[in-house]
Sequence to fold (197 residues):
Amino acid sequence: MNRAGTKALVSAGAAVALLLAGGGSSVAGPSVAKDAGAKPKGSHSYKLQHTDIHYGGDKTRFESQVKLADGRRVAMHYLDKKGLYVQDYSPKARGWSKPKNVYRTKTDVCQGITLKARAGTVAAIADWARYCYDGEPPQESLAAVATGRLTTWDRHLTKSFDGWIKAEITKNGKQVTFKRYAHRLKWTKGEGFGPKH
Fold:
């Protein structure tokens, strides 16, 4: 056999070996398609989740939703013995983010969830206590605030407290004041929560 024929056989053998080893283009195709189908981190391709709590009357009082001026939405719901969860809606992606835990507790839920939005800032109030849904006062009262991409929540928990009644957001969205009669709790953008008064 001449030198040209030998080179041809060696080249053909190398190509077969490469295909059998998984290095050929026909093997790479499916892995690329698989990567393309994977959900990117932080994607808004989930459905809106709901509470799993059915006691104490209408279960819709154990979830809440608020719409921001730019079309985004924030939804919160309680999960029994698991705490408070949040999702945000992207009008561009037309879907919800993956449910994320904001506060974890095994205490019974209390009353509803208050959500307020202004100037890109969202404030939330949620409460827990044993038998609270039957009228007992809260024992765990959570104040929470998120801004920007709404992926991170600043939290302040007050124990043995009857719970915040409302949250007021300034016009520029840089400050939130949680109120219950004479009691005050302030949150400031860039600084977080101050002491409860």
In short: The CA atoms of residues 44 and 93 lie 6 Å apart. Residues 2-38 have pLDDT under 50 and may be disordered.
